[in-house]
Amino acid sequence: MELGWSKLTLGDVATRAGVAKTTLYRRWAGKNELVVDAVAELFDELRLPDCGTLAADIEGVVLQFAAILARPEAKSGLMAVVAESVRDDALRERIRASIVDRQKRLVLEGRARAQARGELPPADPEETARTVDLIFDMVAGTVVHRTLVSARPADEVWVRGFTRLLLQGLTATT
What we know:
- This protein has helices spanning 10-17, 21-27, 31-43, 54-70, 72-85, 89-103, 105-117, 125-149, 156-173.
- Helices cover 75% and strands 0% of the residues.
- The chain has 9 helices and no strands.
- Pfam families: TetR_C_11, TetR_N.
- It comes from Streptomyces lincolnensis.
């Protein structure tokens, strides 16, 4: 992504990776698909830590997320494909399927763990389905905006305040 989105080609990627272009084209139709999959792999590194409380678990995963977003390849890759997806519905759907939907596992895991600890009451499946998207969007949207749009750090102090505010909303509605 050092070349910028408009100049990036699979040929450049193949040269840098030391493989034939045909190797890349067997797996990806073009740069959109390749970059989405590369960014998705970065986000697949996220793990919900078991720190003993829902608040500490959220803080841990948000700090991991911010650290990934601080990496140049994640920052440039994510911003490029999101910008390009404004004009490309298929790309937007690929982002949703490959990145967003895969990471919602963290919300489900955190909710289940907090319920097992007694921090959140059991929820019916309909309510869980409605809130998973909302919770994910609140966390991901806020952290992406903070780090990439506003170019401000998501450090421990900020993450602690964000988590406290998020949990006030979660416990008020459950």
